[in-house]
Amino acid sequence: MRFLDQQATPADVRRHSEAQGAIFDIWTLRGGARWRHEAVIRGLCHSAYLGEGRALCRVLGRYKMYVDTNDVGIASHLMLDGYWEMWNTEAIISLIKPGMTVLDVGAHCGYFSVLMADLVGVTGHVHSFEPNPPIADLLRRSIAVNGFAERTTVHEVALGDVAGIAALDVPANEPKNAHIVPGGVGETLLQVPLVRADQIPGAGAADFIKIDAEGAEESIWRGLRDILAADRPLTILLEFTSGRYADPAAFLDEILSHGFSLGIIDLEHGIEMRTARQVLEHSPVDDQMLLLTRD
Question: d(Cα 93, Cα 18) in Å, to the nearest integer?
Fold first, then answer.
């Protein structure tokens, strides 16, 4: 084995470690062939069953993550492939910079939160929101095992436009599809705390926000009022599914009224600009990850 000399740069160390099969250099995801990157990550993927429905797996060829083995939505992909939604993964790597304050709304078990915590570095901070208690526990464990606890705050709450209590419906074996049921009651629904994002200490300094909340986007957006009103640069990734909203055109108009340019994260081509009309003409049942940027 060839060892690096004392003049080696951090990039040299990353490349050397990848060559030895130790870690994957996530910065390579900013360019090159996606299929090749996915193949390398898949080859570095390992999983260990811990008992009681939990496993520890390696994702993106470098991070350790705790997952629920009964979760067929995300965990199955992380345990066997080591990555999730590579188009969004690539976009996040290109958009988040060291020192940023990031809000991860709908964090689930923490795949994106862990990545974001690495990207913001020791001078940045991630606020990670996950209202489902057992999934929030996995999130905390994953943050801690990767050494990111000091730069990440896990909020075990749902976000909306008021403070109070919300009813959370968690589909069996598909916790990523957990969603708020307005006015919901019943033994199968979880009662979880509900807060406004703009009332979270530190959230007002947000430089980047990701929102993936299975239909709660409008109420979450209203709860960002004070953050949106600040005259500062901001980038938002927001999952938009027009069939979920009573008036999708009005919602999109409200979004764009805050001075954002409009793009999407396309599954095949990555970041592409869009008009409001193009977004609204998309299938009403298919998710679009909007890219909203304001300088």
Answer: 18
